[in-house]
Amino acid sequence: MATQVFVGASSTADPKKAASEAVAAALRESPRSDHASKPPGPATPPGPATPPGRARPAFALVLSTDQYDADALAAAMTSELPGVPWAGCCTAGVFAGSRLLRQGLVVGLVVSETVRVGIGVAQPVSQDGRRAGVLAASRALEGFPSSAPAGWSRALIVLPDALTGNAADVVRGAVEVGGTGVVWAGGGAGDNLRFVRTAQFAGGRAYSDSVVVVAIDSPARMATGIRHGFRPYGPPTMVTRAEGTVLAELEYEGAFSVYQRTARARGHQVNLDGFATFAMTHPLGIPQADGEHVIRDPLRVVSPGGLYCVGEVPDGCLIRVMEGDPIGLVGAAREAATTARDAVAGPIAGAFVFDCISRCMMLGDTVRDELTTFESELGESVPVMGCLTFGEVGTLGRGVPQFHNKTAVVLALGA
Prior knowledge:
Low-confidence stretches: 30-47
Strand order of the largest sheet: 1-6-2-3-10-11
Strand content: 25-35%
Largest sheet: 6 strands, mixed
Structural class: alpha+beta
Radius of gyration: 21 Å
Distance between the termini: 9 Å
């Protein structure tokens, strides 16, 4: 039986009702659920109704905003999905198709008789992110063969707490276990830009300061597309001192001073008060061997003249100031979707999208253009769901899996 993906959403504030509505909508509204049963009535036991002649869900991806009580939402989802492995996290926004919810919940049911799923969770990422990544990936792959069976595809989805630790280190730990020869996707859990606390979901529970890894083996091809749409604005400079996520010095000079000088050479005056606004469209890029750039988002200037970034900047690497605009961002979304679509090279059951919150902030009211682009390029009948992440996970170009900023990652699941 072919793999199918059913997507549902709810904007209801009550977690129990939101879980019920989202699961029911996933079965009722999917364009591929022509034989799906109607939502269960009052006399029907809780849980997803199984479409006649089809397998029960093999997995559910659950993405929410942070307004819900995490423990209450976890309990509600477990009640709605009895016996179904599910995982997810909270983020700054979620979407089903082109419908963006700043408060809400989206659920993606992966229905298949053959797909195999494993879920692992580990904590605390704040103390040893790499070890947490190793443990979560190891637990997700427990019982799996060392590699996907011949002709099958393996994907790993990584959902780290992006507020408490070094998410780049978490990804390195997961890659240490999962290897580079698989499909990587995911994104950092976040809140609604309050930078207080996030939630990760696994095993029917809510966690914080943790990382969740989902392993999927499928007989159908799975593939990702990843793009950001930013282009170089300034010359390469050497990172001569970095401390985790703080870029302290470039060429033995305060990083902010070098950033200011780069902008000034292009006719832009950047001071402390205007830095956050300017940096939103002018992040940093770490050049890769194949000409791509991994984006680092500098959030603020820290004493004595360093730049605090979302994600680490390695000592000794080169870095450039980049620039971007809404046209470039929507174009990147198109490229990410078409890359994933073309790599599947066949019917697509559905797609999970991890799209940076800062891209949404740049696009403003035109963010719908980006969401519509994902839908149209993947195919009008393909169910699409996603979230606004705090950093993204994926393999850019011919590089290795990494933690990115300001990037769109599209994971397409073959039917």
